[in-house]
Amino acid sequence: MKIIDVKKLIIKTFKKFNLSEKHSNICANALINAELVGAHSHGIIRLPSYCKRIKKKVINAKPKIKIRNISQSITNIDADNAIGFVGADLGINCAIKNAKKTGLGFVAIKNSGHYGLSGYYAEQAAKKNLFAFCFTNAPPAIAPHGAKKTLFGTNPICFACPSGNKVPFVLDTSMSMINRGKIRRAAKLGKKIPYGFALDKNGKPTNDPAKALKGMQLPIAEFRGSGLAWMVDILSGVFTGSNHGGKVKDPFDDFSGPQNIGHLFIVFKQNLFVKNYSKRIKENISKVKNLPKIKGIKKIYYPGENKAERFKLNKKKEINISLNLLSEINLLNKS
Amino acid sequence: MKIIDVKKLIIKTFKKFNLSEKHSNICANALINAELVGAHSHGIIRLPSYCKRIKKKVINAKPKIKIRNISQSITNIDADNAIGFVGADLGINCAIKNAKKTGLGFVAIKNSGHYGLSGYYAEQAAKKNLFAFCFTNAPPAIAPHGAKKTLFGTNPICFACPSGNKVPFVLDTSMSMINRGKIRRAAKLGKKIPYGFALDKNGKPTNDPAKALKGMQLPIAEFRGSGLAWMVDILSGVFTGSNHGGKVKDPFDDFSGPQNIGHLFIVFKQNLFVKNYSKRIKENISKVKNLPKIKGIKKIYYPGENKAERFKLNKKKEINISLNLLSEINLLNKS
């Protein structure tokens, strides 16, 4: 299906579920972006679940979002359980505005939901000559180091900064060996996942995505990844006044209440301490890119570069939607 | 040797090498802290190298440090190649002061040097009811993902926050499979390191610490750890106006010039967005600690807890200094 038609379909569907034109548009842009960067697990495949959450009133279609400026740099947003994309969109724009004004933007969003790819928001800041950290927590997926029960989400660390060229440096890396969305997608497509990425509910290694989803994902680098996932839970959940400590509900399996997810966005100007930032970052990146490569590697990519290449390619193509998914969406529009 | 006597010896030695009483004291506190938390690789074993750097004039014993306040939150420090501990001590105190005033402290330090353990500085903020990120870069140790040459330092991610009890949450985790100091210590003690942590200079796996030091350390979680180490290089080096892209000199092997290392400290108030932070963080930590444990695990520790336990134990003991090291230090005091 043509990209513009997919976008229209998403907007039409969200509007059918009572989202405003503006909010539907924000959501569609985020989902289309996920498709175009190749993160299909965060793309249109999730539309039916979002609609179900709205229908079950665990996403608020008509949120009364409250914005409170604590200082010219610091802002607190209560998203009133709006769909995650909307709270995050407002949050990153607010952080960008504050950073442009004072050098620093520091924005906490509470009562929000799953917002898709962190990199999508961080990239928006980096394209405006700003650095950005985006933190968000997620439903239990990773067992803390030493525990045999999941508690932390995949809790990505996301950082972006200008690269001196059109494609920003965007690192968006979950703290699990594999993204939960990829496991979910493997399950949906009937594919296996590699061993060593997850355990079943009894703590045994598994390559079955369904068992992995019921079991535990393994953190990267044992106690290190576990500690980093814990940090993200504290920053996004404890600190912002949102759910934490394993209380975030799974957006696709648990419709018993809102997610109350938190986000923390820290944004700052690239040239706070140096006048020639662009020159410096270009030197840095070219240094790394020009290192001798290991066998079989043709090019060293900086984080975000790979996704940007996929985006460019995919922008010229149509978006592939399975017939199953399409009929599910059509059904939603008839309900 | 008694702790107080080790401290006196360190102060005496640094003063012999022209550091002021105040700066010698700052350095001694940092080195003693490293010994007491059990990070011996960052402790008194490094004293002779620091003295050699001062003697070779690549550490400035009498720095003219410049402090420039960009706003009430943002400060830029040029450490004039002071010993790293001094620049970092000033930086964290400045970040704490700014955060207490405005909620946010954001401090970049350039022309600094190796400052020991990041956690030592972050912990100081956490003990004052503040959150802290401490970033610093380091000499080449890790090969970027896809490259067969080292460029990134072990570049730790360090984060601390109050835990609701006396021992703060302090995560201080290098982006390499093993800390460089531990390899160095293994080499000094004639011990092996585990396979899978490092490659020799030809890219072959090795358990010989001497070969590992000349070769490459492996990043955690492949491209993820590589990306995070890159992020730390950008934040500490490119952004602050310091060396980056593999230009930071090894403090113990390369006396051809100053290190020009950069640090970035981001500090903020625990209660910016919630009134009951202490209650919330206590709940969070107790949730994790009370999870069912895997076989052989008696207790789940939060980051920093283990080190604090060692600190408490070691504070009652003497510090073990090898005769070799002691005679080396005595020689320095006679030179």
Structure description:
2 copies of one chain form a homodimer. The first copy, chain A, has 335 residues and is of the alpha+beta class. In chain A, 40% of the residues lie in helices and 14% in strands. Chain A contains 11 helices and 9 strands. The first copy, chain A, has helices spanning 3-16, 21-36, 47-55, 84-102, 118-126, 180-189, 209-214, 223-238, 277-289, 305-315, 323-334; strands at 66-69, 74-78, 104-112, 130-136, 157-161, 169-173, 198-199, 216-217, 261-269. A 7-stranded mixed β-sheet of chain A has the order 1-2-3-9-4-5-6, with helices on both faces. In chain A, helix 1 (3-16) packs across helix 2 and helix 4 runs parallel beside helix 5 (118-126). Chain A is globular and about 55 Å long. The two termini of chain A are 22 Å apart. The model of chain A has no long low-confidence stretch (mean pLDDT 95). The interface between A and B is large, with 71 and 71 residues.
Structural class of chain A: alpha+beta
pLDDT averaged residue by residue of chain A: 95
Major pleated sheet of chain A: 7 strands, mixed
Question: So how many helices of chain A?
Answer: 11
Mass-distribution shape of chain A: globular
Largest interface: A-B, 71 and 71 residues
Strand order of the largest sheet of chain A: 1-2-3-9-4-5-6
* Helix-strand sequence of chain A: HHHEEHEHEEEHEHEHEHHH
In helices, the fraction of residues of chain A equals: 40-55%
Oligomer: homodimer
| Rg of chain A (C-alpha, Å) | 20 Å
Low-confidence stretches of chain A: none
